[in-house]
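User: Could you go from structure to sequence for me? I need the amino acid at each position, not a summary. Structure tokens:
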């Protein structure tokens, strides 16, 4: 599972809060995948039909590879803010290829574009969050 998102938690919530509070966003990770938590849950349940030994392994995420910079700019517009950045995009990122999952279970029902809209609106309205950052930008494995 690569970065399941809901209104109270996820990479998009982390980005929206940083933008909303004027905190600088680290660009090192560069790109990321996301999936709506509801779609992730539905696909996880469908995967039980494929339990096997040796194990059946499949990645769950959305089909899009999203740019940290571009998503932050889009979110900032929705939040009425200007994003602040530091660092530069590196050549590597933690990404998942969920094409096999989408062939088996169908594509996610909620697009990244819709998730960006929902999260920006939620944060702008002061919606409650879980207060647990994802640490998506961490590249050394220390969270």
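Assistant: Here is the amino acid at each position, in order:
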């Amino acid at each position: 599972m690569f970065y399941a998102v809901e209104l109270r938690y996820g990479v998009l919530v982390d980005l929206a809060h940083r933008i909303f509070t004027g905190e600088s966003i680290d660009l090192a990770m560069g790109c990321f995948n996301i999936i709506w938590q509801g779609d992730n849950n539905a696909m996880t349940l469908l995967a039980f039909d494929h339990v096997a030994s040796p194990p059946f392994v499949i990645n769950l995420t959305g089909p899009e590879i999203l740019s940290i910079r571009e998503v932050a700019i889009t979110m900032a517009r929705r939040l009425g803010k200007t994003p602040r950045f530091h660092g530069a995009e590196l050549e590597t990122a933690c990404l998942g290829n969920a094409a096999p999952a989408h062939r088996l279970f169908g594509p996610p029902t909620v697009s990244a574009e819709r998730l960006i809209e929902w999260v920006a609106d939620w944060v702008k309205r002061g919606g409650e969050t879980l207060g647990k950052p994802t640490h998506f930008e961490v590249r050394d494995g220390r969270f």
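One structural detail worth keeping in mind: The mean pLDDT is 94.
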